[in-house]
TrEMBL record:
InterPro entries: AAA+_ATPase, GTPase/Isobutyryl-CoA_mutase, GTPase_ArgK, P-loop_NTPase. SUPFAM superfamilies: P-loop containing nucleoside triphosphate hydrolases. Residues 45-195 form the AAA+ ATPase domain. This is Methylmalonyl Co-A mutase-associated GTPase MeaB. Keywords: Chaperone, GTP-binding, Hydrolase, Nucleotide-binding. Signal peptide: none annotated. The keyword rRNA-binding does not apply. Belongs to the SIMIBI class G3E GTPase family. ArgK/MeaB subfamily. Gene3D superfamilies: P-loop containing nucleotide triphosphate hydrolases.
């Protein structure tokens, strides 16, 4: 099985897109050979760029425009678009490919959608694993677009070398409502839909807040659907160099932390847990007694 994994990775190294798609499917679904693929990976320095922000901020539209600019410069780019999984149906819309339809057939752009599988911060262990598989394909950049769910989105910091937080002028009633967690993880703030009323005032307030926090975070203004400001953002990404030294160790530590959590929870599926609770439920149901019994039998 290990030889098969190495042959598959060799095909990926040579640029075979079908082999890449197959390896991602194997890893995503924990099929036979998934562990062999992951353990056969060699470290790559491909920059991983996280794109996060609240729902409706225009992340996918911004990416669509940004990818067009980077592709024109001959860059090979992979996008892992993370879509939310419903906590009730456990299904996912996987709709980011539709919003990035302009780039879907571009030879230098590879788009893959992934469900969050219930991860609160919009990330799951599978996101990390699949990003590492994408690194084996020698892309110039890997973008991970994550679900905008606010404070818990800080998980992206353990995966991305560069984190871009997309906001809109009406992100909260006032600039003070920006979550402190987002302020801590952002390397770049993007005020999208900057042609809307009060956009300039919002940007001034954001820059003031950054100065008060003694942070060095760049702020870009864009109107993604018109392409405004996207060229400047593309230049910022092209100039970016991945972290080294202590920052790299911190990123690896966070990444390992998230993977260990994922592996320890691997055998616990939420839909099966719901079924067990349904079977055990009664008017005097005690969740702590249930958990103790459940953990012993797992």
């Amino acid at each position: 099985m290990l030889d098969k994994a190495k042959k598959l990775l060799a095909s990926i190294h040579s640029g075979d897109v079908k082999s890449l798609a197959r390896a991602l499917t194997i890893v995503e679904n924990d099929l036979a050979g998934a562990d062999d693929i992951l353990k056969s990976l060699h470290p790559q320095q491909t920059p991983v760029i996280g794109v996060t922000g609240p729902p409706g901020a225009g992340k996918s539209t911004l990416l669509n425009s940004l990818l067009g600019n980077l592709a024109k410069k001959g860059k090979r780019i992979a996008i892992l678009a993370v879509d939310p999984t419903s906590p009730f149906s456990f299904g996912s819309l996987l709709g980011d490919r539709i919003r990035m339809k302009d780039q879907f057939n571009h030879p230098n752009i590879f788009i893959r959608s992934l469900a969050t599988r219930g991860a609160l911060g919009g990330l799951s262990g599978k996101t990390i694993e699949m990003t590492d598989v994408l690194k084996a394909a020698h892309f110039d950049f890997i973008f991970v677009e994550t679900v905008g769910v606010g404070q818990s989105e800080v998980e992206i910091a353990g995966l991305a070398d560069l984190t871009m937080v997309v906001l809109v002028p009406e992100s909260g009633d006032e600039i003070q409502h920006i979550k402190s967690g987002l302020m801590e993880i952002a390397d770049v703030f993007i005020v999208n839909k900057s042609d809307r009323p009060d956009a300039q005032l919002f940007t001034i307030g954001l820059n003031k807040l950054i100065r008060e926090k003694h942070q060095q975070i760049k702020v870009f203004n864009t109107v993604a659907d018109k392409g405004t400001g996207v060229l400047e953002l593309a230049d910022e990404i092209l100039a970016f160099k991945p972290h080294a030294g202590l920052k790299k160790i911190e990123l690896l530590t966070q990444k390992a932390w998230q993977l260990i959590q994922h592996y320890r929870m691997r055998d616990i599926q939420k839909n099966k847990l719901q079924q067990k609770i349904t079977e055990a439920y009664h008017p005097h149901f005690n969740i702590y007694q249930f958990i103790e019994t459940f953990m012993r039998s797992s």
